[in-house]
Amino acid sequence: MKTIQRQKILDLLSDGKLHSTLEMRNEMFIMSPASRILELKAEGHNIITEDLPANPNNPDSAKIAWYKLVGKGQEKLFEVSRRY
Q1: Domains along the chain?
Q2: Residue 47 forms beta bridges with which residues?
Q3: Which of 24, 47, 51, 61 minimizes the number of CB atoms within 10 Å of its CB?
Q4: How far apart are CA 46 and CA 55, in angstroms?
């Protein structure tokens, strides 16, 4: 089942946008997305993690992990570009 969850996350992240832990839990029913992300990173996938507000309209809201799949060497080009 973990393999299916990793593939679901890769499919989601392949659009090049930011996706949150909450999105993966609530919409994809992956209860431990951080663990799956770590496994994907161990496989060599270049996934950037940013701790950002859960509610992009309220910068004071609790911070959660947001993930983005980037190409090799693009880590410094990573900009927060929410999909909202």
Answers
A1: 2-74 (1.10.10)
A2: 69
A3: 51
A4: 25
